[in-house]
TrEMBL record:
Protein name from the UniProt record: Pyrimidine-nucleoside phosphorylase
Keyword tags: Glycosyltransferase, Transferase
Limits of the Pyrimidine nucleoside phosphorylase C-terminal domain: 345-421
GO terms of biological process kind: pyrimidine nucleobase metabolic process; pyrimidine nucleoside metabolic process
Protein EC: 2.4.2.2
Its job: Catalyzes phosphorolysis of the pyrimidine nucleosides uridine, thymidine and 2'-deoxyuridine with the formation of the corresponding pyrimidine base and ribose-1-phosphate.
Family the UniProt entry places it in: Belongs to the thymidine/pyrimidine-nucleoside phosphorylase family.
TM helices/strands, residue ranges: none
Coiled-coil residue windows: none
Amino acid sequence: MRAVDIIQKKRDGGELSSEEIAYLIQGYSRGDIPDYQISAWAMAVYFQGMNARETGDLTLEMAKSGDQVDLSPIAGIKVDKHSTGGVGDKTTVVLAPLVAAAGVPVAKMSGRGLGHTGGTIDKLESISGFSVEMDRERFFAQVGEIGAAVIGQSGNITPADKKLYALRDVTATVESIPLIASSVMSKKIAAGADAIVLDVKTGSGAFMKTLDDSIALAQAMVDIGTHLGRNTVAVISDMDQPLGFGIGNALEIKEGIETLKGQGPKDLEEVSLILGSHMLVLGGKARDEAEARAILKSHIADGTALEKFKQMVDAQSGDVTQIESPDKLPAAKRLIEVKAAAAGYVDGIQAEEIGIAAMLLGAGRETKESVIDLAVGIYLTKKVGDAVAAGETLAVLHVNDAAEDKVAEAESKVIEAYRISSSPVVPPPLVYALVTKDGVTRY
Ligand code: URA
């Protein structure tokens, strides 16, 4: 077999065999096939696409390229949740304890943030002492004992995807549905999930800006999960504005705690309940979404979800007093109010711009090496649909040591992110569609 023939076949619209896909990915992993040939192949896939079988094969090859976590020592159906990345998305912080309180084991590996989107691991590290590293035995033991553990991606998970993603990033081949779908799903499969709930974001702050593209990505991922024997559903949720009010690590943990107490922002609570309901159904703890929602709400109301979070924080060496008194979490030294220039109604909040503004303040990483400030970020005081008066506060910047030019740039980004209309605005739906192996339901 020769890489050049496989590239040519895909370039001309052919269907690659399982052996050809294995040859490319294994050869690339070993270093036998060079970056320039894989770049050409990725561009051919970008233009010609891949069918469900090819995409499934690519996923499996990447999943097999490194460690594969065997979660079978943990009893029960292990349901993973994955978000395609949003701004202010702290649903994992809410869902890990909430779903665990309802009896579905959560053995979750999460990532760090890069660019305008945050990462769950960074958020959790704003709790003093919280450890995101543990060996496999301790990880399993914690999930067995308290039902939930969230750790950083350890070991050598999907090295072929890591290499290919870095290459796609610099060859303009990221935005390909089969390549994104196989990249995401390879990590979920390698991490050992029995079932998967995907939160596919759509809108200005998402990878996929249109509903149709988001649904197509969701369908590709659901097809892969189904093909590989993992029950998979995808919720298409809104990212035309950030989720909740807080963007920035400690600010997001505070909001997660409020939500676990039933006092969080309504949009965050609702998206968490929707995703959590699907996790309960796939985990065999509820017959349908309505029953699952009632179970989840009861765990918020009776305090068991918050208690579960405290147990998880304690087990991972975090300071539980910060969960009991969130004012003890890291806080910024300076608050700067960003005011509306004119009166009207908030018509849109460009999530990506808000994410970049938070990054400029130090909440996120410009490069993988950037050091983040856990206390800083942005708190939105107005969301889409809200009325604003001229001079009223739209958002508050939480600032520590960022250079003044960065603070000024962040401030202008926030102002630019807000679109104000002169007539009343109806807030967008939180969820647009559900994709399962049986098809697409649009709401
Ligand atoms: N996230 C991933 O993990 N992979 C992609 O290709 C795109 C987003």
